Amino acid sequence: MVPLSWYLVLAFMLIGLGGYGMMVKRNLIRILIGAEIMGNGVMIAIVAIALFNPAFSFTGQGLIILVISVAAAHTALAMVLMLMYNRRYGSVDLGTSVEMEGQ
Amino acid sequence: MQGFDPALFEQIEFLLLAGIVLVLAYLALEHKEIVYAAFFFGFMASFVAGFFLLLEAPFIAGMQIAVYTGGISTLIIFAVLLLPRAQDSTLEKFATPRARQISLVIAVVVTVMTGFLAVLFPWAESFNEAFVSISQDLNGLAQWLWFENGIYVQMIALIMITSLVGAISLLRMDKAEQLGAITGEFGVEAKPVLIDDLQSAEDGQSVPEPKEVDE
């Protein structure tokens, strides 16, 4: 049996890695990938906690079903916002808007 | 097999999966070519489903593969393909070394602190240390979702449909703004045209076919 702490450490490592990507990257697609990696870490933590507590058996699974559904919707919205950004500024680089608005 | 410990096998499986997932997540963020990065993200999402199988939640694992690998990673690849400038890795700008170092320090501090919390927190007092199987009863799960928490499911459904309709509307509004005008029938977008000989047009003479303006 794998201890709960192992799953949580892995989940926090994924959250940290995704957060690093979101802070460092300037490309909007990479920032979106970072956010999705963080989401995967959170999902592992929730399901692992549900496994170790019978009270969360359905709660954990139900919550993950809802989280995965919402993740699909927010990715579609993020993609449209990226396309709009690209049309307006001609790039998916986050710094472009700051540079162009500053001129 | 004598001396075979299933718990040890499970732990080795976990470590193997964890290593693969972390490497794929790193490659998804740091690979030079963004198309490959999107593919690495899709692979990473597939391997995360392996953890759900280890946690005995096969329904969640199936959903993870269907939605994350089949849907979200495909959406990201579509986004990359729709944005030609994003595919050119030479155009990608990177943060300054100082910004990278600060971000790395913040991420490491947060990860280490939360990792210590995960290791040191007395889970045995809060949760059962004994292995508890997640219920595999899909009927029970459906009843829990629809009868006990139906209002939340409906709220999430409303949020989803609003975000999708909003996304489509935003895209159409932006396109209309870019074209400059909407003429004719409702929803029919017209391209601006140039008439070379305005005088002949006013005189009612034969007007040459208008040329479409190249955008």
Description of the molecule:
The complex is a heterodimer of chains A (103) and B (215). Chain A has 103 residues and is mainly α. Chain A has one domain: Helix Hairpins (Orthogonal Bundle). Helix content of chain A is 85%, strand content 0%. Chain A contains 4 helices and no strands. Chain A has helices at residues 4-24, 28-52, 57-89, 94-102. Chain A starts with a helix and ends with a helix. With 215 residues, chain B is mostly helical. Chain B has a domain at 137-194. Chain B is 70% helix and 2% strand. Chain B has helices at residues 6-30, 34-54, 58-82, 84-87, 97-120, 123-126, 138-148, 150-179, 198-203; strands spanning 193-194, 211-212. The N and C termini of chain B lie far apart (71 Å). The relative contact order of chain B is 0.05.
Q: What descriptive keywords fit this protein?
A:
heterodimer; A: 103 residues; mainly alpha; Helix Hairpins; 4 helices; B: 215 residues; 9 helices; 70% helix; extended
Write the layout of secondary structure elements.
The complex is a heterodimer of chains A (103) and B (215).
Chain A: H1 4-24, H2 28-52, H3 57-89, H4 94-102
Chain B: H1 6-30, H2 34-54, H3 58-82, H4 84-87, H5 97-120, H6 123-126, H7 138-148, H8 150-179, E1 193-194, H9 198-203, E2 211-212
Helix pairs in contact in B: 1-2, 2-3, 7-8
Overall structural domain count of chain A: 1
Low-confidence stretches of chain B are: 181-187
User: How widely separated are the two ends of chain B?
Assistant: 71 Å
The average pLDDT of chain A is: 85
Strand fraction of chain A equals under 5%
